[in-house]
Amino acid sequence: MTDQEWEKFFGVARRWWGNDLTSYKRTHLERRLTTFMVQEGLADMSALITRGQNNPEFWERVHSYLTIHVSEFFRDAPYWQTWTQAILQWPDVSLKLWSAGASWGAEAVTLAVLLHAAGRSYEILATDSDAAILREAEKMEYGPEVMSQVPTQYHQAFEQIGPTRWHLIASIGGHIRFVRHHLLSDPYPSGFHGILCRNVLIYFDPSARLTVAQKLVRALLPQGYLWLGATETLLEWQGLGLQVVGPSLFQKSVAPAAEG
């Protein structure tokens, strides 16, 4: 696609979604958007924009397709053990946690199940920019393929509601709140003991990635934890006032970092 076509697409996207896609890696967006257009039988960018005229449902589908939603329960199990051990070091207070880029909620639910099993009080904010995927996440209902990812000792956290459907029990799910939020453009909440933002920063360009990392760190309480994806790096961790405490796991210093 030409630069002119991209600018035209970005302009329309801003009007519908209120965020600037120019901060995402173009290679990722172009690959996803091209596949979407082929599936929809759209010959070019003009055809896509014409199809979307006065059609919010269409643009919601475009946004959902451009957003990666690969997630699963207890993904990277050893990392979850390290994260849980770290977050449980907080004194016996109600933990305030944020799953940023939560997709369909797998990581927020995993965290809730682990904290419930540990007997800790908690509240989890789970956010994503995709309204459609959040509607699915809020149901907290899962089929057999998803449930197969849950270790046996945690099956009691789910109740069977049909031959092939399970629901997260209310005493756990009631502590998870799903909210639409865009990391690049919306104001950030704050005061968190821990933030999960796994496999999200890799889709941003270097400038946007650093900006989001800075905002996530500011959203943490002193000594709060930031957990990234297993393949993600944060070379600027020292300048952000963080220390490395485990694989892809960082802890905020007590003293604030200098503003960059």
UniProtKB/TrEMBL annotation:
Concerning Pfam families, the annotation shows:
CheR, CheR_N
Checking InterPro entries in the record gives: Bact_Chemotaxis_MeTrfase, CheR_C, CheR_MeTrfase, CheR_N, SAM-dependent_MTases_sf
Q: Which SUPFAM superfamilies match?
A: Chemotaxis receptor methyltransferase CheR, N-terminal domain, S-adenosyl-L-methionine-dependent methyltransferases
Q: Which UniProt keywords apply?
A: Methyltransferase, S-adenosyl-L-methionine, Transferase
Coiled-coil annotated residue ranges, if any? none
A Gene Ontology molecular function term for this protein is:
S-adenosylmethionine-dependent methyltransferase activity
CheR-type methyltransferase domain segment(s):
1-255
Q: Mind listing the GO biological process terms from this record? A: methylation
Q: What PANTHER family has UniProt attached to this entry?
A: CHEMOTAXIS PROTEIN METHYLTRANSFERASE (PTHR24422)
* Name the record gives this protein: Chemotaxis protein CheR
Q: To which species is this protein native?
A: Sulfobacillus benefaciens
